[in-house]
Amino acid sequence: MKKYYLIAPGPTPVPPEVSAQEGLPILHHRTSEFGAIFTEVIENLKYVFQTRNDVLIMTGSGTASMESAVANLLSPGDAALVASTGWFGDRFAKILDTYGIQTTLVREDDGKSVVPAKIQEALRSNPRIKVVFATHTETSTGVVNDIRAIGQIVAQTPAVLVVDSVSGLAGQDLPTDGWKVDVVCTGSQKGLMTAPGLAMVSVSAKAWPLVEASKSPRFYFDWRKMRKSIADKQTPFTPAVTIVVALAEALRQIKREGLENVFARHAWLAQATRAGAQALGLQLFAQAPCNVLTSIRVPEGINGKTIVKRLREEYGVSIAGGQGELDGKIIRLAHMGFMERFDVVIAISALEMMLCELGAPVELGKGVAAVQRVLLTQGKTAGGSAAAGSPAAAGVR
Ligand code: PMP
Predict the structure, then answer these.
(1) Which residues fall within 8 angstroms of residue 352, CB to CB, at 6 or more apart?
(2) Closest to 245 measured CA to CA, from 6, 52, 14, 10
(3) Which of 12, 92, 166 to mutate to test the pocket of ligand 1 (most atoms within 8 A of CB)?
(4) Ligand 1 centroid to residue 326 C-alpha, Å
(5) What's the CA-to-centroid distance between 167 and ligand 1, angstroms?
(6) What is the pTM assigned to this prediction?
(7) What is the mean pLDDT of the chain?
């Protein structure tokens, strides 16, 4: 018997009611029945994106939403800026390169966040920059970027702001309209608690003229076709019907919980995870850690790849290691989407047992106790501050 615990930052676990939707008979996509579900999904996505802009759905993973942004907003020879804080920010630069865009890369060291003043400076020195690309929560390092500050800067220029929130959406607050983000890119398999297979974008009124003007090749990922079809409650091509139907249920659950509560739960679990890791004497990797995953430096003398492999093979616990340069040096634990307090207990408990097996000087139970203390004493308030009347006042030690 092997029980499997998915604690990696995407794909993430799916609630049973959402999985159950996937077992229902397949709907034809050109029917009023599907049209009603599709329309509900678009409306509820607007709630989660916190936007009144158009929201488009395409079949593909998160990267499809990123590539579609490049293809729809820019023409070969145009100038763009990428504010990258890791592997996924760098992906934007690679896509831009593929499309023949002149890219200015403002790259922070892994573990650090974007310095918004650098974006301001880059935009000042190159007024040809049409689009600024940034990452909300950089999954490869666990940092959160200050999208609000970046949004304020870009909004004062003719440029549009594209934010990759593939891992952040529905976990870490991103008021799309409030923070003046023109395009938000995401996927179904993380905070949205659904199987992989759908990519989504929101597109502002400021961004649409660029879409009309783009000379980049695009057929399947043409946002104009997608927008036109929405009026008929359809997609231009056969969508991943099953995943749309499952996503409808996941979005109902998010709405029922309430976005504010979803964010507070993520902040709470993040705080507990960080406390657990630190109690084990481990160092956090991100300078400004996000609330959807925690990246942890692997102790000297241990290979992070071994931790990840043995946790998966021997304990059935699936976490993530480092990507690229960080391979073997960090591990990443998710608290994203359909996760609750005991997911954190499992993650930290498994980690301390594995470190013990690998000969690291950890005291069993110390990490778990720190997790439990946070879970008991901190209210589920955004930012994780103790709620009035919480057990903190009752003296839990
Ligand atoms: N951006 C970020 C921040 C991500 O976390 C991911 C997925 N790990 C992606 C982009 C790429 O998404 P996908 O693997 O679904 O194409």
Answers:
(1) 280, 362, 364, 365, 366, 367, 368
(2) 14
(3) 166
(4) 17
(5) 7
(6) 0.95
(7) 95
